[in-house]
Amino acid sequence: MEFTQFQGRNNLEKFAAAMAWLRAHPHEELFIPPGVYEVTEERAHAVFTDMIEGRLGENPQDRMFRPDFPYLRVMDFEGQEGTRVIADGVTLLLDGFFEPVSLRRCKNVTLRGLTVDYKRKPYSHGTIERAELRDGGGILYVRFRMAMPDTFCSPRCALYDAKTGVMHYLPFGLGAKRRVEGELFVIQTDRFDANVVGDELYVWHAFHSRPAVCIQNAENIALKDVTVHAQPGMGIVGHLSRDILLDGVSVVPSSGERMSTNTDATHFASCYGKLTLVNCTFEGHGDDAVNVHNYDHAFTHLSGTCYLLRCVAPDGTHTLAEDVPSPGDAMQLIRRGTLDKGECFQVHTARAAEGGVEVTFDRPLPPGADETYYLENASACPDFLFSRCRTRSHFARSVLIKTKRARVEYSLFEHTDSTAVVVSAEEWWGEGTSSECVEIVHNVFLECAVRGGTADAVSVGTSSEEGTGKQHGRIVIRDNVVLLPDGREAFSVKNVRHKEVENNVILRR
């Protein structure tokens, strides 16, 4: 079916009609002719404007990243089966606050060729024309390239250095701002650096909210040649889903821009089966390129073999849905402080409940376990492949591995903000698990960890309070090329039972 066959007063209604038809006709194909499809809606536009103008607070995440915060879905695949959408040359141009692509409770769905972008980006940038020392800090004169409200919010910032082509994140904190004339503003900073004159200042207007593509409780999902240029939140989020393929996906800035999504390019939590990212490109995003993990849960005994689980991650899940295990899953005890693994308990039933998730197990947990252990879903750990991808000039880590089995191969990492590849389990984020086998082979790392990190290319460890054990199984770091400054380390490998670090070429400058 061709998209032009569907009726509506605007593109939002036409997409709703097309999605309803696909839901009623399993295993059908939708062809969307190339072009720019602008989508707006009065309330969505007002929310987006409020976000930029600071009406939702200096950090809008506190208001927007909640289950009850209203939003609209544009391409909603919920309930579909066997759908194939061909959108080569199609740009979804959003004017407002949306979740552009929603893949919930669907299976065997392929989306090809779509580009997601925003008419007004969820960030702003301008040139620093002058810098002055002021009371131990600084004053910047910044001329923005877009219309700016007097009260714009700016919870995070970065500098783009045109001489090096590198983004430098968190160079200073931003304080009071005042319009001088037109789009020229005076902005206070907590540090002074005269060398920033001529650089571009990028300011965020949001952190986590809705992703550009949400994959939730779905199965066998393929995104091919999909591009995300901007989103007030993450690019692609997967949660409680099985068998996900990203082939030729790009989360990159649009022409003339240096920033893409406001937070992670991609993020996958509590998924199953295989997670494959191949031939993908990630650049300019405001957090990790990919983060793969399950969650730590605190728990309370209710009665018999019934327990209430509470996800301890500070931000909760990134779909804002409860992290509900499936019957038959193995929930494993994880000791607080060391993250050592204990007994596994099989899930019989599970459901979202007030205050968390109510679960019954095959037998009671040990008395007092709630005081010394978390529970994590040992079954929700996909086999992860990151192959022939490229990441460059973005915040935080490129590949963050907190799943049991993973392979990173034939990929290029350039000027990442922190260590390029991290294998860990992070207690402070409530995210695990420690790995069983991770191979990092045949990659090139070019001057990574611009702002610093445990190592430039690869760091393996256990980010727990004590970190005394050898939680990771087998780690292979082989046949990689690393270019880094003198005095820096290429690899840091700790808390590993068996490691193979060999045949790597280290070049120093």
Number of strands: 45
Structural class: mainly beta
**Overall CATH architecture of the largest domain:** 3 Solenoid
| Average predicted local confidence, pLDDT | 96
CATH class wording of the largest domain: Mainly Beta
Low-confidence stretches: none
What is the overall shape? globular
Strand order of the largest sheet: 1-4-7-17-20-23-31-34-38-41-44
Count the DSSP helices.
4
Tally of separate domains: 4
- Classify the beta-strand content into a percent band: over 45%
The separation of the N and C termini measures 57 Å
Helix content: under 10%
Note the main sheet. Answer: 11 strands, parallel
Radius of gyration: 23 Å
Instruction: Kindly identify the CATH topology of the largest domain.
Output: Pectate Lyase C-like
